[in-house]
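lol ok so funny story. i was supposed to be doing the assay writeup but got distracted and ended up predicting the structure for this chain instead. priorities right. anyway since i did it might as well share w the group, maybe its usefull for someone
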Amino acid sequence: MTLALLCDLGGTNIRFGLSLDGAPPEAVAVLAADDHPSFEDAARDYLGDTGVGLAAVAVAGPVTGGRAAMTNRNWIVDDASIAEALGIERVRLFNDFEAQALSLPFLGDRDLSPVGEAFAPDAGAPKIVLGPGTGFGAAALLPEPGGGWRAVCGEAGHMTLAAANETEAVLLAGIREDFGHVSVERVLSGAGLALLYRAVAGDRKPAPAPEEVTARAAAGEPLAVAAVGHFTRFLATAASDLALVFGARGGVYLSGGILPRLGPCFDRAAYLDRFADKGRFREFLQAIPNAVVTHSAPALAGLAAAAFRRPGPDS
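and the output, tada:
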């Protein structure tokens, strides 16, 4: 039997778990990244005296040649450095949303909250997962011709965010004055929600913290409600763009740390209306089911399968 260290390394939080021979972790520990000078230090803190035979680490940033520079944290994550620091022979690095994509075949009804009617995707068709948190990530899970799945990830958060109407064009123009390029992540993230609030207010005052915006929206403040509404529709635009690219009849899975905090302020009807608003492809998109991922650490389930090369129940 082999014990594996699993880690979902985000810009704000680090989620750790242990997998025995590919089983999903029974418990998840969440450490604050700000409390540690490096990933290796956080991993040692979590493991203590526990020895592991291998490690699978998902990183919020592009992974090349076993090395990743995090996008929203000044950390370099390197498989050789991790192996040396923890005294293990095999370390595998993944993009964080690549790991989330690998988890999709293992998510059940209790891990998902349908957006709209029942979530009934085409089980063998391409799936996509995306979501806002500290940044914005996305990945696709594509069926392999011989069975099994292949995750495809990129840096969708840095695509240019499109406006669907004149109101949105004005909002993005205001943000562009400060940042030049307005990426998907610039708006669809925690910091982006705060920027939207300031853009809706139409002033140059410092933006409130994202959690303050959601609290004000829950209390019914018109500016906050409007900001969350724009956030919801921009998210739907990005999701439908990616659904068209991959032909995601296997479902759109909405993940990340922001949506659970929005609660009832997330207008699901408005989301679905914008998601389908693609002219001649309205019917195609209306047939694609969407769901919010409610699993507390979906990436770890994907990492457990990937670490031991377990194919997944849909293969």
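DSSP finds twelve helices and 14 strands in the chain. The chain has a mean pLDDT of 91.
back to the writeup now i swear
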